[in-house]
Design goal:
Number of domains: 2
Largest sheet: 4 strands, antiparallel
Number of strands: 13
Length: about 200
């Protein structure tokens, strides 16, 4: 019987290339391990803590390392385990079944390409109001954690595009968009009053 394998992926914040590799369940559970980028300037690391594992991932979006602790059961058996950047809401590393990881990594690369294009054409400050944007993203993350984001088309799979003064939730299935303003304290208060967000879905 072949040994169970897991696929691991992230985008190197230094050279910008996607790093995807397979690891056996034994390699991940047996002890500490790393997945270095071929450029040698970043790495994803796994540190075993008994029945749990600490994952440290470099982040392309905020240039900081993000850490999370998960159970080894989730690390070795969950279809898709994602670690996201709190500032952007976008994923910075994925562990799971090969097909699932390749699918979300492709979406992540598309998001990175789009952000680079936006950066080339827009040299203003990062956000109109950085404090409000940070709070809006944190609140959005909490709503998403509770399963509160869905599209009217029935899909719960969506992407997040962080703009200058708003955040767009984009349905991965039908492409419909819900824009959340993120420029004033009133925008934040309006979001805090909601526990569910519904992307309208495409009419055609």
């Amino acid at each position: 019987m072949p040994e169970e394998t897991r696929t691991v992926g992230y985008i190197c914040p230094v050279c910008g290339q996607a790093v995807i590799a397979r690891r056996t369940a034994f390699q991940l559970a047996a002890g500490n391990s790393t997945l270095p980028c071929p450029c040698g300037k970043s790495e994803l690391s796994f540190r075993q803590l008994g029945d749990r594992c600490e994952i440290t991932a470099p982040c392309l979006f905020c240039a900081r390392d993000h850490r999370t602790v998960c159970s080894n059961d989730a690390l070795l058996h969950k279809k898709l385990l994602a670690l996201s950047c709190p500032a952007s809401g976008l994923g910075c590393c994925y562990v799971g079944e090969e097909g699932q990881v390749f699918q979300v990594m492709e979406k992540l690369e598309q998001a990175v390409d789009k952000l680079r294009m936006d950066d080339q054409t827009d040299r203003r400050g990062a956000f109109l109001n950085e404090v409000v944007m940070g709070e809006v993203l944190a609140e959005l993350r909490d709503i998403a954690r509770q399963g509160g984001v869905r599209c009217a088309c029935g899909s719960a799979d969506y992407g997040v595009k962080v703009g200058y003064s708003s955040v767009d939730l984009v349905c991965a299935s039908c492409g419909a968009t819900l824009r959340l303003p993120a420029a004033t304290p009133d925008d934040l208060d309006g979001l805090c009053a909601r526990d569910r967000l519904t992307i309208p879905g495409r009419k055609d």
